[in-house]
Amino acid sequence: MSFSPSSTAAVAEPASPAPVDSLLASIETDRPDAFVSLGSAFLTRLPAAPLPEPYLVGISADIAAQLGFNAADAQDPAFAELFAGNPAREWPAEKLPYASVYSGHQFGVWAGQLGDGRAIGLGEIEHGGKRLELQLKGAGRTPYSRMGDGRAVLRSSIREYLCSEAMHHLGIPTTRALCVIGSDQPVRRETMETAAVVTRVAPSFVRFGHFEHFYANDRVDELRKLADHVIDRFYPHCRVADDPGDPYLALLNEVTQRTADLMADWQAVGFCHGVMNTDNMSILGLTIDYGPFGFIDGFNANHICNHSDSQGRYAYKMQPQIGYWNLFCLAQALVPLFGPQYDGDNRNEQVIEDAQRVLEGFKDRFAPALERRMRAKLGLAEIREGDDKLVNRLFEVMNANRADFTLTFRNLAKMRKADASGDAPVRDLFLDRAAFDVWANDYRLRLSEETQSDEARASAMNAVNPKYVLRNHLAENAIRLAKEKDFSEVERLARVLRRPFDEQPEFEAYAGLPPDWASDLEVSCSS
Ligand code: AMP
Ligand code: MG
Fold first, then answer.
1. Alpha-carbon torsion 212, 215, 219, 224, what sign?
2. Which residue's alpha carbon is nearest to atom 22 within ligand 1?
3. Which pLDDT score, from 0 to 100, does residue 54 have?
4. Domain boundaries, the chain
5. Per-residue pLDDT tens for 151-192?
6. What's the number of CA atoms in the CB half-sphere (13 Å) around residue 215?
7. 58 — pLDDT class (breaks 50, 70, 90)
8. Active-site residue flag, 279
9. pTM of the model as a whole
């Protein structure tokens, strides 16, 4: 052994813990107001089942920073080990991960108990005044796995990682993703694939289905405990606001409003979730559980992104009303908690009336929320009668022509008030040019009532109409390379999607129409 100055220094100074060790140390599982502290009626504590020989596929520097560490430290093999479910040492007993139990309605039918069948909570990290919970998706079987293998495949993990980050940068509430870790361990789906784990991050992973679970099992004490946890941590104003007698009704109101906004966000960018079961609905109004999702290319209001959804229950145009339906399920589950201010014979009637009134608020929120977004997408700063018809007619022409959703809105900004000199980029997306021209003339007339200049309108429109979205074929290109262990495209695509509204001339190809092969891509629930 050579005696070098550096080794002397290493002996002289006590070494600070390796970054990955301090990352593990920063994960907390014992705070009394954490989800994990709700106890055994809500979750089972268990170690993850680590993947062999894990490797880093992608990491979000933004989320790493939010968790208080440097993405460069993820190059340490111990990082991949930890986020494949295998900490360098045994899971310390007090830090044992956990899987939660929930139930839900799947495709409109009561499915009974489900739960985190392949998601394992690690605990929370508090950094910079923010508390975030971390969850490994695909880290092995749990008591809620039913027939499943507890795994997720590389394909779906990359899709979830890319899309949750992309949605965030579109300004849409979502769970985030820290990283994807891959392994060569085979996993059987329709074909043989390989396993991966995506680390999701959110303030909370509580779903509508968590409430449905305790309601269905007639466990009102636990139901109340869960509702109190969610209110205290995330909606504390529900205890003091308008309706001091009924914090649970106030909670339903908050979730209703947030879900309405989320539906408006999805519709406005042409995002289809694909599996809007009540167990995939976040109590915080976040987009959660990315499976067979898709951004619409050629517009079709009936677009179904989930190959397994033969009835089109979760088709694009259905999403808002499904969101509303799911809120009914949540309301039903909360009924036992409502109405402490009433007693007597007509308590139930009053409680149902209250809940219905709150749910009605969905419509009052959703319609104007979507209208506002559509007005901004068309660059209409002022409000005029007939604007809604103008929007609807645009969707009709887009629908008839299968015009590309993202490019239509992006290219609308190039139209000019005075003449048709800027029409071509959007007009060329419509096979029936004459039909487009009829609409465009009305739009131009409407624009002439706007006081702002073409330039000002265009820059306002470009700030709300993304140029880059995670089209299926872009994800597919990144996945194909990643299967060959080339992760550069995952990184590049993540980088492009971090600035969806900016012109990025070097990445023009990422904004183009999908290639012909993209129409054969099928995305199913199998992930
Ligand atoms: P999803 O449709 O992905 O939201 O999943 C519905 C339910 O099935 C949830 O309880 C999941 O945890 C569970 N699940 C899905 N895939 C698997 C799997 N491969 N192993 C175990 N459980 C799974
Ligand atoms: Mg799910």
1. positive
2. 117
3. 97
4. 19-205, 209-340+347-375, 472-514
5. 999 999 999 999 999 999 999 999 999 999 999 999 999 999
6. 20
7. very high
8. yes
9. 0.95
